[in-house]
Write a structure and sequence with these properties.
Chain lengths: ~220, ~450
Amino acid sequence: MRLLVVEDDPLLGDALQAGLRQAGHAVDWARDGAAALHALQSEPYAAVVLDLGLPRLSGLEVLRKVRAAKNQVPVLILTAQDGVTDRIAGLDAGADDYLVKPFDMGELAARLRALVRRAGGQSDAVLRAGGIELDPAGRRVRYRRELVELSAKEFVVLHALILNAGRVLTRAQIEEQLYAWGEEVESNAVEVYVHHLRRKLAPDAIQTVRGVGYLLPRDVTS
Amino acid sequence: MRARPSIQRHLLLLVMSAVAAVWIGTAIFVYVDARHEINEVLDAHLAQAAGLLNALRSHDIAEIETEQVPGLHKRARRVAFQIWERNRLLLHSANAPAQPLAQQDAGYSDALLAGRRWRVFSSRVGERVIHVGERADAREELAREMVVGLLMPLLYALPLLALLLWLAVGRGLRPLANMTRQVSARDPDNLAALDVAAAPAEIAPLVEQLNQLFRRIERSIESERRFTADAAHELRTPVAAIKAQAQVALGAGVANERERALKNVMAGCDRAAHLVDQLLVLARLDWTAESRPEQCLMRVVAVQAISDVASYAAAKRIELELKEGAEAQIEGYPALLHVMLRNLLDNAVRYSPAHTVVRIGVSATDQAVAVSVMDEGPGIPEAERERVFERFYRVLGTAESGTGLGLSIVQRIAEMHGARIELGSGDGTRGLRVMVTFPRRRSAR
């Protein structure tokens, strides 16, 4: 999934970007509040990691502006103060979760997964649809109980589709989850990954809606 | 141990002394006045008695038995008379001496007979001379009795007055006691102002000063609190960066990714160590102030600071230049001046682009010695020049990772030397010029 890291400290921002990339995400890094706001207004992110002590526009102001614009993107705040008032202010301004520095990269990634899952209306850690089971934490996919090997990009595409099971995703929407700023977008990449997924799972696992995009049907409980 | 001075005791002592002094003064005046009046009245009595004796006929005198006259009054025995005729004593009172009471035969006189002082009135009618005398000590006694009569009540009145005054003064000082109770009942965190309106005029200035002290303490506590919080924040971020970079290194799939992350771990450690150093410098500045200032040669200090940052500047391809000039001497703390100049040079090198020059100048006039550091970096916008001295403040848009403490340290050291810091633009519009001006001590010249 595509994440936005907002952090003014060069070393910490670099580590966040690198660490979350290792976890298989496309990560954009904004170094101040104004840049973060601009990014949030123009790109759809699965989640945001937001430092509170930012130059130009503080983390709290960014958060309030984002929420005022009815943007419901999950936001996790990073704070250096262990005082409870800071965290209350953050949560009240519309943050979904917080971590106090210094934190564990594994925990940060897990909390982000949980935030994204909850935002998609799922509370189970493993996402299920059409016989597919996707475990975002373990980065494992099973089809009809059989383990399926997927590349990182294929996993991201399937993750996006299963999070939005029952809804049609446009090719652009899927692309946005695949690439961070500055990464070159390969043409027809989405078609190629969908093709691979159909081959590895089942030919009818992902449906094409002509002229719109792709759909992973939701399980209908009888 | 000496007793603590007490306003109540002091006031009581003063008032009682004043009362006693006035009373005693009054008594002395009364004594003098009474003696004068008593003399007037008794002299008149003597004259009257002489007149009465004059009226007696000669054969009456022979029949008078003065020994039989009863003591009609306790003072009567102190009054005596003699009737002389041709140097013969015709008649005399029982207590009269044998020799004449007076040498003269008319008017008032004072006599000393048998060790006693007498006041005598004499009058002559024909051959007969009459002396009526009164012992002077009787008069003294009268006057003394009047004074004692005036002073005696004082003996009873003074302790009563003291008691009442003690209570009154105690009551008058009650606002002070109330204020004491109010202050002592406070918990140490409560630095709210005391109610000045409730204080009487005498205590109001003290309360006002106390309130000002409270405000100063509150401000300094607040700034300490903010400093601690900021310091925690500033230390946590590098630690978080180190930890995150280390985890990136652990999770890296390829060697160059791991190497890059590990290098970042090292950079993070250097930064955290630098921050800790700066914090320690700032903390130490407070106690260094107690040592004695000495004569410092500014160019010598500048050369030391330049050699400290020389290798850092070389790595960034920045040239350092100490401008030509004469040595200048000020009174100060050489170690602190060294830290100050090193911080200024470190800042200049940190924010300068490669292939530029950082210039250091030392100049002196009769009144002052100035040290300037000039770079060709981005400078500081005028609007931010005040704020850069705040602890942990960093100018926006700077990619360099400073601690935000450097200029706070510089300012603190400048304050300790009574020096003034000015920020300006370097040559032309580019760069930053920091000028620290030290006043020359009068004793140094």
